[in-house]
Amino acid sequence: MAKTYDPNNVFARILRGEIPCKKVLETEHALAFHDINPQAPTHILVIPKGAYVDIDDFSARATETEIAGLFRAVGEVARGAGAAEPGYRILSNCGEDANQEVPHLHIHVFAGRRLGPMIVKG
Ligand code: AMP
Fold first, then answer.
1. 109 C-alpha vs ligand 1 centroid, how far in Å?
2. Domain count, the chain
3. Contact yes or no for 11/104 (Cβ under 8 A)
4. What's the pTM?
5. Which entry of 46, 73, 92, 93 is 20 to 30 Å from 9 by CA?
6. Is the residue at 120 inside a domain?
7. Is residue 119 part of a domain?
């Protein structure tokens, strides 16, 4: 069953221009901006302009053009940040077990330092 999208989540409000963001890139299908609480020297969020709750929702419902548009934007943002070398990490939290806080799909782009292990063993 499709997840219900909350149109008042903070990223929906950024997309509507109701609250500001530090914009990095805007394309037809994606918006990228600096995370408000950066966890690395570069911490940028890339979001689709469409109303998708998370990567599960997006991968099920988005068009090929929207999917390409989002991931092209991720690559462009990382290259623009000078991170293609020596490298970067992308991450997307999906749902409760992943501690997703904002219910609009976002791809985190982390760079600018050695990022350590991928995940804490548990
Ligand atoms: P997640 O836990 O994957 O849902 O991550 C949500 C991210 O959104 C966190 O890294 C927050 O710091 C970030 N965030 C929340 N509100 C804003 C905002 N208004 N502008 C930029 N980043 C935000």
1. 12
2. 1
3. yes
4. 0.97
5. 73
6. no
7. no
Which pLDDT value is given to residue 113? 97
Q: Is residue 122 in a domain?
A: no
Alpha-helical regions (H) of 6-84: 10-15, 55-61, 64-80
Residue 118 lies in a domain: no
Q: Quote the tokens at residue 50.
A: 């469409």
Residue 57, domain extent: 10-111
Tell which atom from ligand 1 comes closest to the C-alpha of 103: 4
Distance CA 108, CA 114 (A): 16
- The angle formed by the CA atoms of residues 6, 77 and 67, to the nearest 5 degrees, is 50
CATH number of the domain that 100 lies in? 3.30.428.10
**Distance (Å, rounded) from C-alpha 97 to C-alpha 26?**
30
How far is the C-alpha of 42 from the C-alpha of 70, rounded, in Å? 19
pLDDT in tens, 88-111: 999 999 999 999 999 999 999 999
Which phi and psi angles does 89 have, rounded to 5°? -130, 140
